[in-house]
Design goal:
The protein is built from six helices and 14 strands. The strands form three sheets. A six-stranded mixed beta sheet has the order 1-2-3-4-5-6, covered by helices on one side. Strands 7-8-9-10-13-14 form a six-stranded mixed beta sheet. The longest helix is centred in the last third of the chain and has 12 residues. The mean pLDDT is 96. The structure holds zinc ion (2 copies).
């Protein structure tokens, strides 16, 4: 699996372009906007199969309209965050300088949904806490997790936005912590990490472990 990372916009939200090299099937995760770099990456992909969204905040979704128009790929978001795609208050786009172009979801994600990308599978884990409809995408057998604003290197996502919940965040992090074995973790902002590194070093996770 080939992975390209593009931090986009004022908040540096990571847009990930995931390509199964054998088939050319590609998924784009969290396009903050359609930059020239991102355009080039999707141009070189044989087939953009999905636009996956980890959650509905503007710094992750403002490029969805343009990317969907450019590729025709279906837009997939958890149903609890689907309104963010056309509600600039719910996505907080109205508080930002980002250009918000309303769009509708083609696929409403639920816990346990599985999508194929070439020979790999991408499973949806519903991980609320940062938003009601926050999800992580778990890619196997590549052992990658795209964790959105749920799990970051050395920290976890904020829970003080509308729809956030510290209790739900704790439950979501607990589920991630208990996945079998190690994974590479690609968060919505900042550097990638591994699940094992976070189990050992992430204060929030270590505190959960003692409860
Ligand atoms: Zn967010
Ligand atoms: Zn974010």
């Amino acid at each position: 699996m080939k992975l390209q990372t593009f931090p986009i916009g004022t908040y540096g939200a990571n847009c990930y372009v995931l390509t199964d090299e054998k088939s050319g099937e590609t998924a784009v995760i969290d396009p903050a906007w359609l930059t020239d770099e991102l355009k080039k990456a999707v141009d070189s992909a044989a087939f953009v199969k999905y636009i996956f969204l980890t959650h509905g905040h503007f710094d992750h979704i403002c490029g969805v309209f343009d990317l969907h128009a450019y590729t025709g790929a279906p837009v997939a978001i958890h149903e609890a965050d689907a309104d963010c795609l056309f509600d600039e208050k719910k996505s907080h786009a109205n508080e930002s300088e980002y250009t918000f172009k309303p769009v509708h979801a083609d696929i409403l994600l639920n816990e346990g949904d599985v999508f194929s990308l070439g020979g790999s599978s991408i499973t949806v884990m519903h991980t609320p806490g940062h938003t009601k409809g926050g999800v992580c995408f778990v890619c196997e057998p590549d052992r990658m997790i795209f964790s959105g604003d749920t799990l970051f290197r050395s920290t976890v996502g904020r829970t003080d936005f509308e729809g956030g919940s510290t209790r739900e965040m704790a439950e979501s992090i607990e589920r991630l912590r208990h996945l079998d074995g190690d994974y590479d973790v690609y968060p919505g902002h900042s550097r990638s990490t591994t699940l094992q590194h976070e189990r050992e070093r992430n204060f929030f996770i270590r505190r959960l472990g003692r409860i």
